[in-house]
Write a structure and sequence with these properties.
The protein is of the alpha+beta class. The protein has eight helices and nine strands. The strands form three sheets. It has a five-stranded antiparallel sheet with strand order 2-4-6-5-3, sandwiched between helices. Helix 1 packs across helix 2. Pfam families: Mob_Pre (PF01076).
Length: 273
């Protein structure tokens, strides 16, 4: 029986994190990340899933090979279209992230090229300013950044669409690209399925707490990295709140400890006459 895999496709604004969504240099920062120009991300102890030993396997499908050149090309396109950023919340870039399973035998370069051809056909008239494939993380994937200009205006929200258009987008991607590589949309889970998944997740958390050494198993670490990577914004928010609470507790404890610490009785420096 032929092995089939779920199609994984995300459509998001470049800089979806609330801290940088209005950053004027967000395209440059995204390009620097995609082209592995941020040295801090390539350190062994960096807080990400990048394996710098494999970064040489990454490849560029469209656009320039440096972030500076990507930005220069983008500015030329904006100038040619006579488009302007009119509001701070204008979406400066739309990103599609297409991933393949870690255990598949799919021809990555051919599949990503077919996917990119589909993107250019589906978003006719919307320039692709960068497309970079990453093979140095747990799952092979490609980042495609669109410049959301239409009729001389930035129309990022319109180009991204809503939940219904995203469903239609995925269906179309499966028809045009997915079936060629045995990639199909997953069947939506029922309430009982989600309940069982949640119960299993809680059991797994308790097991890891009791047996932390299990995290040395490479395959488990890769799977957890993939799951965490899909929820980075939420995880950052939760962890930041926990760190703030911990800091407050520590500060309060330290203050109370100082103020209530027992003081040794002082001996008089004077001798009674």
């Amino acid at each position: 029986m032929t092995q089939t895999y779920p199609l994984v496709l995300r459509v998001q604004r470049v800089g979806s994190n609330s801290r940088n969504r209005y950053d004027e240099k967000i395209i440059e920062k995204a390009a620097r990340h995609n082209l592995r120009e941020i040295k801090a991300e390539l350190l062994e102890n960096a807080a990400n899933a990048i394996d710098p030993r494999k970064s040489h396997l990454n490849f560029v499908l469209r656009g320039e090979g440096t972030a500076a050149a990507v930005v220069q090309h983008m500015e030329q396109l904006i100038q040619a279209a006579n488009a302007k950023i009119l509001r701070k919340d204008n979406i400066r870039g739309v990103e599609l992230v297409f991933s393949l399973p870690t255990d598949s035998t799919i021809d990555v370069r051919a599949c990503f090229e077919d996917f990119l051809n589909w993107v250019e056909s589906h978003y006719q008239g919307i320039p692709v300013i960068s497309a970079v494939a990453h093979l140095d993380e747990s799952a092979p994937h490609v980042h495609v950044i669109l410049l959301p200009i239409k009729d001389g205006h930035f129309r990022g929200s319109e180009i991204m669409g809503n939940a219904n258009t995203l469903k239609a987008l995925r269906r179309n991607c499966v028809e045009v690209v997915g079936k060629k590589y045995n990639l199909f949309n997953e069947t939506p889970k029922t309430g009982n399925d989600k309940k069982r998944d949640l119960e299993f997740a809680n059991e797994l958390i308790e097991y890891i707490r009791a047996e932390p050494a299990v995290l040395t198993e490479l395959r488990l670490r890769q799977l957890l990295s993939e799951i965490f990577a899909k929820n980075t914004d939420k995880l950052r928010s939760v962890l930041a709140n926990q760190l703030r609470k911990r800091a407050k507790r520590h500060k309060a404890k330290s203050f109370v400890g100082v103020m209530t610490k027992k003081v040794k009785s002082l001996k008089s420096d004077f001798v009674a006459a």
